[in-house]
């Protein structure tokens, strides 16, 4: 296991290096000059040139990259061109909110999705199956902003149970989590259903049923556990996406997470923040994927990492 | 054993989430729960007012940004300010005098004015603040050819310019040029934005990046403007600016009573809010306009007849009614009414010259050589159709305007291809002249804005250079006599009207909705809230 983890660690470093090169090139290829954003509409040519020199933007691209990667390796992602705040601080200030939102959404999505998917598989081609698949389809296809506004209107405006927007602890994350959880649950339900349908047909399931195993234990103990591998992969991917910032949900609910930070940074061509965020998101994706692989071996004893 | 490992991992993830929850919760504890609550401070009604705004300022340090609005401007008290008619009146300065040659402006500070830290506002302090501004502010061009600042005594100082710089006083009304507390600059350096201290009616209490800025009433404030009844500290405890980018969410927060002020009401909600008995609406005209810019470097626009034909083909009423739901005023001349230098005479002449006239537009196009028409109804010159690309930002209102313009120009046989671009892309590429047309806007408090847009080598959006115009605008910059200066701007505007390098379209109405407040007013020139008389209704 230790060897496997070391191997994964080196793969992670190479991936991050690749991401850093890609994102660096992309930021410099898209039109838009950060200096013009900083200095405003009526900046003089002299001021523009001075600031470019000060920020090192007049240096060759490769030198700018080495300077960036050198600092990044020391944990310094630079300072925002716009706010002057350290990018690491900006990300760390906002990440806890995105992290909570991702975890709560995933819990909602996974619990609802797995239950719906299992019922749909066990009761295949019945009204329960159709109902569950219809709900999951709505979850997948309804736009996030629409669900968000619907939930706000009903549960925060008409019935003032939850706050309409802003972050004020756990309570303020319930509606955003349901919004994201609904979409996540749709995907998970569909995956669980198809995976369960395959497992249900297996000989060992028939054997267990013939032995008179309790239905609940049969479905959840024997069936679901074996059907979970692809579902866990999906959950891992969804978790990575959620952690990378749910831009629309954060915008509608005015949550100061990393999704909204990304939008602001891109609009103002705030290069250090964009670079820092993309690197951070890539890191999160890689770590989540690693965790998923480790969870595989916990769920399925046949999977072993040597 | 192995079966238990999955639930253990799951609970670990949940514990991590809850731990993060409690940590983040602590930093954001002081939220907006007290919105609208009443305070008990002696002599004032107290309480907390919540304002919702779309955009968060980059920083509250006005010497580190090019964006000043209600959320950061009230921390600062400028040396002078505009009254409600656009005249410059004393603010932090008791008086100012301009030397005969116009090169020296002497300011005398009001006695007893204090910074938020409790330190006195002194001439030396003002000098230090300006030195930082000149040294590093992105807007340092606003002081013009300033050579030195001479401290005469504790309350008096002089600005020495190498040549007269007439826009200085207008520029000095803005927060950008307001003195910062030198002690705070020294203590916090580049971190000043998190600990801003100046002499404004509100001081910084708490900044939560991405979420809100809380400002509290500065109890020692004594600089209330002549147009306010209250000359002292604000009549409430604090004001929370919450940043909510989504229009629907902002409107629901307001209608629910969670916020007392909603800035930048979207046009499609104005009628609904006007009908609400609990809501009052304040409207002011913007200090700039939205225009259809032509890239005058392009050959097609070097023909005056083509530029005028485009101007004549545009009908502003449908744009205002359809795209802006009436929340704007059509404009034909270069300056809007809120900028000193606006002239009714110029506006009248421009409105007459460019009144919607399709026949005249078509005939000008014919004169310019567009005599043919292709199958799509587009006019052609030497077989080449008059097809133009219009750059427009992602803002939905601007896109609606572009669609109206597209239809209107089609009527005279001009094809307009709409190209939606990011704001940052237009800012970066239009100075290089990569566009043909753009839908853009400007805003400022002084007619010198025309120099910024049409001065020598400064025309970055419409690329229009006219020596006569440049010479008038340069003369206006150094003319300290206000009447003479305004006369020069009238001449400059007439050139722009006749030459038509752009098509001014409309002046937006800044619409603010408010409730549960008394004494609420918006400054007609600056468009910012006048906090002095505002109180929560009991």
From TrEMBL, chain A:
Matches recorded under InterPro entries: BPD_transp_1_N, MetI-like, MetI-like_sf
GO biological process: transmembrane transport
Species this protein is from: Sporosarcina globispora (Bacillus globisporus)
Domain of life: Bacteria
Subcellular location: Cell membrane
Protein name, as recorded: Peptide ABC transporter permease
UniProt-listed Pfam families: BPD_transp_1, BPD_transp_1_N
Keywords assigned by UniProt, alphabetized: Cell membrane, Membrane, Transmembrane, Transmembrane helix, Transport
Transmembrane segments: 9-30, 101-122, 134-157, 169-189, 215-237, 243-265, 277-299
Any one annotated GO CC term: plasma membrane
ABC transmembrane type-1 domain location: 95-296
């Amino acid at each position: 296991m230790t060897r496997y983890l070391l191997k994964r660690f080196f793969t992670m470093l190479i991936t991050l290096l690749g991401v850093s090169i890609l994102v660096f090139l992309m930021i410099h290829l898209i039109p838009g000059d950060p200096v013009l954003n900083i200095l405003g509409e009526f900046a003089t040519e002299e001021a523009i040139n001075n600031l470019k020199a000060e920020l090192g933007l007049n240096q060759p691209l490769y030198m700018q990259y080495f300077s960036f990667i050198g600092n990044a390796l020391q944990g310094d992602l630079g300072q925002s061109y716009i706010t002057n705040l350290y990018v690491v601080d900006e990300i760390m200030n906002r990440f806890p909110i995105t992290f909570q939102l991702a975890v709560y959404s995933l819990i909602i999505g996974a619990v609802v999705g797995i239950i719906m998917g299992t019922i749909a598989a066990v009761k295949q081609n019945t009204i329960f199956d159709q109902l569950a698949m219809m709900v999951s389809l709505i979850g997948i296809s309804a736009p996030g902003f629409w669900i968000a506004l619907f939930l706000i209107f009903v549960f925060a405006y008409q019935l003032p149970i939850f706050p309409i927007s802003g972050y004020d602890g756990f309570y303020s994350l319930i509606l955003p989590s349901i919004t994201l959880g609904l979409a996540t649950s749709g995907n998970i339900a569909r995956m669980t259903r198809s995976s369960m349908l395959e497992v249900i047909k297996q000989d060992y399931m028939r054997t267990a049923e013939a032995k008179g195993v309790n239905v609940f234990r049969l479905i959840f103990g024997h069936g679901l556990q074996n059907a979970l591998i692809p579902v866990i992969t999906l959950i891992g991917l969804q978790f990575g996406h959620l952690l990378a910032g749910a831009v629309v949900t954060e915008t509608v609910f005015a949550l100061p997470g990393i999704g909204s930070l990304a939008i602001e940074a891109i609009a103002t061509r705030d290069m250090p923040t964009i670079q820092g965020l993309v690197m951070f998101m890539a890191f999160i994706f890689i770590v989540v994927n690693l965790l998923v692989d480790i969870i595989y071996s916990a769920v399925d004893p046949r999977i072993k990492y040597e | 054993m192995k079966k238990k490992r999955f639930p253990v991992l799951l609970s670990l993830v949940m514990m991590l989430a809850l731990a993060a929850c409690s940590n983040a919760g602590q930093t954001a504890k002081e939220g907006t729960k007290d919105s609208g609550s009443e305070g008990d401070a002696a002599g004032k009604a107290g309480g907390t007012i919540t304002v919702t705004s779309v955009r968060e300022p980059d920083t509250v340090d006005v010497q580190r940004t090019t964006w000043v609005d209600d959320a950061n401007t009230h921390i600062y008290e400028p040396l002078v300010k505009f009254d409600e008619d656009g005249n410059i009146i004393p603010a932090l300065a008791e008086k100012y005098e301009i030397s005969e040659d116009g090169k020296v402006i002497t300011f005398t500070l009001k006695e007893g004015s204090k910074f938020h830290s409790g330190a006195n506002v002194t001439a030396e302090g003002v000098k230090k603040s300006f030195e930082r501004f000149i040294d590093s502010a992105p807007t340092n061009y606003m002081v013009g050819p300033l050579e030195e600042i001479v401290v005469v005594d504790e309350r008096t100082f002089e600005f020495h310019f190498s040549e007269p710089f007439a826009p200085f006083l207008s520029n000095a009304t803005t927060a950008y040029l307001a003195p910062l507390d030198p002690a705070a600059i020294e203590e916090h350096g580049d971190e000043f934005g998190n600990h801003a201290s100046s002499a404004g009616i509100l001081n910084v209490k708490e900044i939560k990046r991405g979420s809100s800025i809380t400002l509290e009433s500065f109890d020692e404030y004594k600089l209330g403007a002549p147009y306010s009844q209250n000359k002292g500290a604000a009549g409430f405890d604090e004001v929370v600016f919450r940043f909510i980018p989504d229009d629907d969410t902002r409107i629901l927060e307001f209608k629910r009573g969670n916020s007392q002020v909603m800035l930048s009401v979207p046009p499609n909600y104005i009628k609904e809010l006007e009908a609400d008995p609990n809501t009052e609406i304040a409207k002011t005209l913007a200090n700039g306009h939205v225009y259809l810019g032509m890239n005058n470097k392009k050959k097609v626009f070097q023909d005056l007849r083509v530029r005028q034909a485009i101007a004549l083909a545009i009908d502003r009423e449908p744009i205002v009614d359809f795209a802006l739901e009436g929340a704007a005023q059509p404009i034909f001349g270069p300056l809007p009414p809120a900028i000193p230098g606006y002239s009714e005479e110029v506006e009248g002449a421009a409105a007459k010259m460019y009144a919607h006239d399709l026949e005249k537009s078509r005939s000008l196009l014919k004169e310019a050589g567009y005599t043919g028409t292709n199958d799509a109804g587009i006019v052609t010159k030497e077989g080449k159709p008059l097809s133009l690309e219009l750059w427009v930002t992602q803002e939905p209102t601007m896109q609606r305007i572009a669609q109206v313009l597209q239809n209107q120009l089609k009527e005279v046989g001009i094809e307009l291809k709409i190209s939606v671009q990011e704001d940052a892309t237009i800012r970066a590429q239009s100075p290089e002249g990569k566009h043909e047309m753009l839908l853009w806007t400007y805003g400022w408090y002084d007619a010198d804005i025309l120099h910024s847009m049409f001065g020598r080598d400064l025309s970055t959006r419409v690329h229009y250079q006219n020596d006569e115009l440049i010479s008038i605008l340069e003369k206006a910059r150094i003319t300290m006599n206000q009447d003479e200066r305004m006369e020069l701007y009238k001449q400059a505007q007439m050139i722009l009207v006749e030459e038509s390098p752009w098509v001014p379209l409309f002046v937006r109405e800044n619409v603010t909705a408010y409730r549960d407040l008394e004494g609420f007013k918006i400054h007609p020139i600056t468009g910012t809230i006048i906090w002095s008389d505002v109180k929560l209704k009991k």
